[in-house]
Amino acid sequence: MTRPNSDQMAGTIDAVVIGAGHAGLAVSHCLTKRSIEHVVLERGEVGNSWRHERWDSLTLLTPNWQCRLPDFDYSGDDTDGFMTMPEVIDFIDDYAAFSEAPVHAQTNVTSLRHESGCFRITTDAGDWHARNVVVASGACNLPVIPSVCDELPDTLHIVTPHQYRNPGQLEESKVLVVGASATGLQLADEIHRSGRPVTIAVGEHVRMPRTYRGRDIQWWMHAAGVLDEGIEDVDDINRARNLPSPQLVGSREQQILDLNAMTAAGVKLVGRLMRIRDGVAQFSGALKNVCALADLKMGRLLDTIDEWAESSPDAKSFEPPERFERTRVEHSPRLSLHLLNEGYRTILFATGFRPDYSWLDLPVLDRKGRIRHDEGVVELPGLYVIGLPFLRRRKSSFIHGTEDDANYITAHLENALASR
Amino acid sequence: MSEETTTCKNGVNVAALLEAREALTQAPEAAQFKWRATCNWEDGTHARSSVEGFFGLGEEQRHRSEFSFDSDHPEIFASEDKGATPVEYVLVGLAGCLTAGIAAVAENREIKLNSVKATLEAGMDIQGILGIDSDVRNGFDGVTVSYEIDADASKEDIEALVAQSQKRSAVFDILTNPTNVTVEVKQPG
Questions:
Q1: Taking Cα atoms as reference points, which of B15, B13, B11, B34 lies closest to residue B23?
Q2: Do A180 and A258 touch, CB atoms closer than 8 A?
Q3: What angle do CA A27, A30, A36 make, to 5 degrees?
Q4: Could you give the ipTM of this predicted complex?
Q5: Residue B93, Cβ neighbours under 10 Å: how many?
Q6: What residues of B are in the A interface, CB distance below 8 Å?
Q7: Span A18-43, mean pLDDT?
């Protein structure tokens, strides 16, 4: 492990990559292939967020055959399996070793500024000067908690997915899970199974079957071109970038994790959490509509897949089309819960994440604190971002989507360097 | 604008709405609106409300004319029934909002509507407002909106119109989610 010496501090390196997760390492590999001198600065260890900010039972939503990084495929035997977090960490560690990435671990970037045509990166282990910076510091640094609770009784515990590891951490009592993304449903499922009765507050969500017509849904979305859809293919890119993760779990049992499965297991559904006042949680009365929207949207995805399947030369080899039962919602879902009186002690907010740009001292954020970029290329010349949901394509949100994105931005970076 | 008008199927100027959406994304302060109504007590349970001015796009705006609405209660409430009950106006607001939304979404999706009819019903246990049972809420115990839509579209596409209209409806949101309401008393001026 090297530290910036006085020469490097005085001189200027071609590129600094911030973050040694899968995205930063993919960029590093592509820069190395283009012979562009660079370093990767990592606040902790390689794959730090995967290592320290995930719950115990988490597996990837994508099957192993789909997991790849530039010039690096999954090499195990369990191609239809789903990696656990230790397996993801090994995969990323192996990639760092394979690509001989110039990672400076335990180097926390505290400031990124732009001075006289060059970037100055201040870290707790010295400063760097660079012509280009690629921000690969992750999309899920900070859990988002909606501003619904001004004051909460001390006896109610707020938990986020960053703190949560397993149900054993929680009091033996009822749990309100807020959010019906992959995270919300996976955690609601395991917490409920642990004997802590769960109510799940459901806002807009993305319903998706794990398997369809005998194959994994990811196989279909890949084959039908859905994962390759780009910014120009969607009506509203902000909306596409902010969608909750699809209700999927990566399990060998090909478990279908949807709200009907939740209901069958005894989990209670309520509408989106709107407000907690005087210990009473109030929920939206629009639960039926958000479920109808998700059912219709899933139907359109399956229509797209069926259309592709019918036009495919292999059309005859696929199992017949399937349609799934509509989401069952009871006639009058609860609109409020008196949390303490009804025995709730924990609220788990699975309401999304946002990146932490507190160190980014550049005028490149929009009014919602997101980096403004065009397919990863930021307005400020020399600045790039990668590893965000739908950065360029739908698959950008997944590990395997990083390859195209890393190729694209490093090609842009190389051209820009050459034309200076 | 005339070319755009001729491409409209349902008479909603979607191009203008999309233009406004784009403009307001760039200038979110202009998106801050204030809706207003005034109400005068007439006699008994009869009151007359009116709307005319509102604030939006950074300045005071006016309807083309003042609209006024009589509210009262039916004779079985020992009233004179000079207008719809206030809770019926809530249904009117919801129906108007969802139906306008359906037309706009249909226009945007290039679906020709032939007819749209909504029937609304809201349940209410009046033991609440009469103070007979404090466990009964004053307001509706539920609202059902039933649409009959004839359009050149599949059943799923029509269902999607109705779902999307709810998603973007102000009155649907007002009815389904809590809102802070402040009622104050001023000295007559």
A1: B15
A2: no
A3: 100
A4: 0.83
A5: 15
A6: 28, 141-142, 156, 159-160, 163-164, 166-167, 172-173, 175-178
A7: 98
